[in-house]
Each structure stands twice: as C-alpha cells, then as structure tokens.
What does this fold into?
Amino acid sequence: MTNTGLVSLVHLGCARNLIDSELILARLAEQGLTVTGDAAQAECVVLNTCSFIGPARTESYEALEGLLQRKREGTLKSVVVAGCLVQRYKQTLREDFPQVDLFAEISDYRGLAKSVRALADGKKIQDYLSSPGLRPAERDDARMLATPGSYAYLRISHGCDHTCSFCAIPAIRGSHRSKRPSAVVEEATELIAAGVRELVIVAEDSTAWGRDFDMELPELIHEVADLEGDHRVRIMYAYPGRFPWGLAELLRDHPRVVPYLDIPIQHATSRMLKAMRRTASVDQVTSTLQRLRKEVPGITLRTTMLVGFPGEQEEDVDALVELIEDARLARLGAFPFSLEEGTHGAELPDRVDKKVIEQRLERVLQARDRTLKSVQEGHVGKTVTVTVDEPPDGEGWVVTRGDWDAPEVDPFIQVFAPEAQVGQDLRVTIREVDEEFNLIAEQVPVEETA
Ligand code: SF4
It folds into this structure.
C-alpha cells in the first residue's frame, strides 16, 4: 500500500471542468492533504469526470474501471468520483459502482475535501454528496492552477439557456447564471498577480454574460483588459446568434484583447441549424463571420462542427465543407453526433448510419486540414510575439503560442530557446510548417527587436 494521506486528481473534459479540478485540488490542500500529480503514488484518487458526449463518457468509465482495478489489486485505498458524470447520472452510478468510496456532485467541493480528509484518517463517511442546488454565480474560491503560469482559464458564468437539440450540458450545468463583474474582476486580479499572462475566458455561452442583469460581455472584457498588469484576454465559447458587436471594437483596438474568437457554429445549412435548435440561421452565421473578418482585420476564428445529426444529407456536408474553405475556418474541432438520452435530438427519426457519420467527419476534417495548411503556410516569414507555455525540452526547444492559437485546442509554435522561461515573451520569425500544422520559428536577434 502507498503513502498515507497522499491524494491525486485525474482530470477529464473541457476547460470549464478543469477549473473545477483546480478548485478541488485547492480544497484538498486546505484540508492538509498532500496533493501529488502522480496518481500511481496516491492513496486516494479523485476522478473529475466528463459526460458531454458518448466518447467522453466512455473515457470517464474506462478511467474509473482502471482505478477500481487498482483498488481490487490493493495499490489504491480509495476512489472518489466527481464532475459531470455524477451530476448527470446521480444515484444510478452508485448502484453500478458500489466499490467507489465517494460520489460528489458539482459544488464548491468543500464537502468533497472534508470527506477525503476523513477517508485518509480512516473514518467512515457518507458515500454520496449531493450538490446543494445550482452553483451560485459568485466568484470561485482560490484554485490550484493546473495550467502553466503562461495562461489560466477564467469562468465568467455557469450554465446555458440555449436548447441545442444534441446537448446535455444545460441538464448538467443548469440554466445561465452570470458572475457579477466584481467577482470576475477579483478572480482576474488574483490570476494576474500570480503572474498569469493570458486569461482565457470560458463559459457555456460567453456572449450571454451579463444579460441576466442588463449588461453585455464587452463591458466585462473592457474592465478585465484594463486591469493593472502585463496580461491579455482571449475569448472562447461565443454564440453566433445575438452577437454583442461592441466586442469587435475591443478585438480590433484594445492592446490586451487578443484578436481571436472561438465561436462554435455546429453546421452550415439552415435546415440543419433549425433541426439542431440553434437560434442563428446560416445567413446570420455567415454574415457574423464575414462582419468579424471585416471589422477585425487579421482576426483568428476558431469553431466547432457537429457531423451526423439526424436528418443530415450529403448536400448538408457539401455546404459544411464549402463554408470551411470559403470562410477559411482553419482552427476547427469536429465531433460525430452522439445520441444523448434526455436530449431532443435523441428522439429524432432519420438517424445517420455510424459508418456514414465517420465518412462525413473525415471529409470535414480533410477540408479543415487543407485550410489549416494553407493558413499556416501564409504565416511563414511573419515576425510575431509569442509566449512560452512549456519549459525547454532536452534539445532546447520550447512550445509557445501567439495570437493565432488558444491553449490545448489549436496548433502551437516551436522555437529553439534553451534559456527561455514559461510565461516569457519571445520575438520570433515563422520559418516553416511541420507535418501536424504546428509552426516552427526562429528567435529574432535582440538588436532587431529594439
Ligand atoms: S450553447 Fe448549445 S451546445 Fe453550447 S452548452 Fe448551450 S445548449 Fe450546449
């Protein structure tokens, strides 16, 4: 058996769930528990799960099975399961996995940490912690950052009021609740004081922020960007309908707002967007993309597409491929439709055959790769400022990002810089594109940067 009181966390899912993992880690440390990044060394492992779509759920179950196997083998004393899988399936999980020591729904995680403390002290605990209702939209407590100091995620609201036909998130995270500006500004100030260089704004729908108290996202972004410090702000999860156009001015003119926007559009025909219960028509989506490109020259757009939704025809995928190429949507994630019980989409007829979904997804990803290759090649020769995300590897190369790339989901820029530190800015010239569409750059001699 391993060391007493040593606890570890296995994180699954999106950036929003990562913030929850960071909150759990901080609460565990407050209980005097020693947190290790090496789950193999831990006596207790907390698994923070994802349950967004089928493949993510499978990953959560497989991770859980792996931990329970270690428990059966005696190399792990206790297993704690938290996150979206618990929030979605609640007590049924308990029946399916009676060997789990604790299930915890989404909350401020204080209760979870106290229970892990009790487990470490050999005390008996209640094995299920319900969440005390919808998480209040107040500031998050202190977090133990799991991201490198160069960036951190900043959640500005919880939940979602949209009813996208394929999505289970509103059932998991509840209706939309914006954090008050003072709460977000307080968290941002602390992250900047901790040396974080890039604040990555996340929510289920960032552009809905403030509408529950007659404010709009640009007001908040302006306040966060104007804070004292050497930081910048990147916005993820914008919704293409009812777009707050004041944002375009900030994306174009504010020196601390990165000219980048993640705006999931999901599909490219009004027939499919209507069936998906997306509130923006294809004309609204394309005019929003065109206006963003016009009003914010050089903006980088990221998006997400869903392929294989019931009723989808080949010509819908033709339109999707065409939009990717015409709108130069190079930074793009695409997912196969996953039948999510409890969602409207799960009840729809005209399901698309699994094989056909895979073929269509391949077409979409090939269109994305063609576009990405050409966009990245267009960057060769440019001189830009990048920030170091990872320390030099054995050969002295560092992973960096500039304005074009969000962390963890987009390509990156590799630079030979054996002396560089995480969070440091480098001035570089793009030299080539590698086979995975990452960029390779060369540092610009200091005298040329003056
Ligand atoms: S906007 Fe749609 S896809 Fe996104 S979280 Fe809300 S319901 Fe889900």
User: Anything to note?
Assistant: The longest helix spans residues 354-379. The chain has a mean pLDDT of 95. The CA atoms of residues 248 and 296 lie 6 Å apart. The first strand starts at residue 6 and ends at 11.
